[in-house]
Amino acid sequence: MTGAIPAATLILLRDRAGALEVLMVERAAAMAFAGGAMVFPGGRIDPDDRALALAMGDEALAPRLAAIRETIEEAGIAIGVAGEVAAMRAALAEGQVLGAIGPVDPTPLVEYARWLPDRGVSRVFDTHFYVAPCPIDAPEPVVDGTENRSAAWLRPGAVLAAADRGAASLLFPTRRVLERLAVQRDVAGVLADAVRWPVRTITPWVERRADGDWLTIPDDLGYPVTAEPMARTVRG
Question: pLDDT tens across 71-95, in order?
Answer without folding.
Answer: 999 999 999 999 999 999 999 999 9
